[in-house]
Each structure stands twice: as C-alpha cells, then as structure tokens.
Amino acid sequence: MSNDMYVVCLDMEGVLVPEIWIAFAEATGIPELRRTTRDEPDYDKLMQYRINILKEHGLGLKEIQDTIATIDPMPGAKEFLDKLRAFTQVIILSDTFYQFAMPLMKKLGYPTLFCNTLEVAENGEITGYKMRVEKSKLSTVKALQSVGFTTIASGDSFNDLGMIQASKAGFLFKSTEKIKADYPDLPAFEEYDDLLAAIKKVILN
Predict the structure, then answer these.
(1) How many domains does one find in the chain?
(2) What angle do CA 119, 49, 114 make, to 5 degrees?
(3) Which of 52, 89, 109, 128 could form a disulfide bond with 119, CB atoms 3.0-4.6 angstroms apart?
(4) Catalytically annotated residue among 13, 19, 156, 160
(5) What is the pLDDT of residues 164-197, one digit of tens each?
C-alpha cells in the first residue's frame, strides 16, 4: 500500500503538548481542575464538572488563554511532527477546543487539527461546549476509513482507546500505568523516536 493511503491520527494533550487543564490548575491553585480524561472516562461529566468550578471561582476563557500562552509543546514534539509529516498525512484529533488549541498549533507549525468549540458568553464566561460529533476520535477514524484511508492512531487516555483499537495499527504514548496494564496488547512508547519508528515500520513496510 502506498503511503499516501495512510493517515496518522494523534491525540494532542499528553502526547504533543502538556495537559492544558493541569497547567491551569497549577496557575490558579485549584487542584480540582487537575482531573483529565485519564481520570474520568466520561467526557461530558468531566466538562460539566470543570465549567461548574470555573463559575464558582469567577474564571473565564481569558484566564485560561493567559495560561495557555505560557505553555510550550513537549520537548521534541515539533521535530517529531515535522519528521512524521514528511512521509505521511497527519491529523490531530483532540477533545479540546479551538479557543484553547490555536496558540499551541502555531508553536507546532499549524498541523491539521479536528477538535470542538466552547460556548462563551460576552463577558468571557464559559457557558457550555459543542462537540463536533459523538465519540469524535473514533467517529473521525471510521469516517477516514470509509473514504479509503488506512488509519494509524496514538494517544494516552481513555478517550483515545476507540481510535487506537479501530485502526490498522495503534499505539499508547506517554500513557498511565493503569491503561498500559489494562490493555497489554497495545504497544506503549515513552519516546517520540520510538513512536516514529513504529509508525514508519507500518507505513513503509
């Protein structure tokens, strides 16, 4: 199969950039905001919980964006993406929001990103969010497959497992000990070079 038939689907937070909510929890000193999809598999429940905490503390989009401006991609992430994009198509599939992600995409050289949108009131309060589609990562991978692409996927959290398991090849990257133990059949990597080599092997063999 020629490598133009492949699309590599990568998670964003925890894989290419640090977890935004953890950085914000540290910046604000609100430990409850440290919860991520690694802790809570139900994304809707997690987001409602976060929105309620923001409301309680009078925090809005601007405060989160101020923290995001200080975040850099993980060391080696941009180089990894550049090497990957030199030989295959890459789409970043994330449950984050465009209002959060764009400054980070700039630092990564503007790769293609599919994510969701926040609903924000005029005063900057986050009132809700709009998911692009249910189970967006898995749905996107299935849609790509339906138009003739072969997918390879990698991520670190519960919400990445669907796309990883539905793809021709799937890898855990910088995941938790629990997820690695629960899914021993999924190859797990900690270093970009190892993930790059594994993807290359699938595509170029």
Answers:
(1) 1
(2) 45
(3) 128
(4) 13
(5) 999 999 999 999 999 999 999 999 999 999 999 9
Q: Is 62 within the bounds of a domain?
A: no
125 flagged as catalytic:
no
Contacts of 3 by beta carbon, 8 Å cutoff, 6+ apart: 87, 88, 203, 204
DSSP letter string, 60-115 = -HHHHHHHHTT--PPTTHHHHHHHHHTTSEEEEEEEEEHHHHHHHHHHTT--EEEE
DSSP 192: H
Does the residue 199 lie in any domain? yes
Active-site choice (4, 11, 32, 122): 11
177 a catalytic residue: no
Return the CATH number at 107.
3.40.50.1000
Instruction: Name the 3-class secondary structure at 138.
Output: helix
Residue 109 lies in a domain: yes
Q: Which domain holds residue 97?
A: 3-16+73-116+132-204
Go through the chain and tell me how many residues it has: 205
Q: Are 8 and 199 in contact (CB under 8 A)?
A: yes
Domain assignment present for residue 187? The answer is yes
**CB atoms closer than 10 angstroms to residue 182:** 12
| Residues with Cβ within 8 Å of residue 43, at least 6 apart in sequence | 37, 95, 131, 159
User: Tens digit of pLDDT for each residue in 13-41?
Assistant: 999 999 999 999 999 999 999 998 778 88
Q: With 60 as the cut, is the pLDDT of residue 62 above it? A: yes
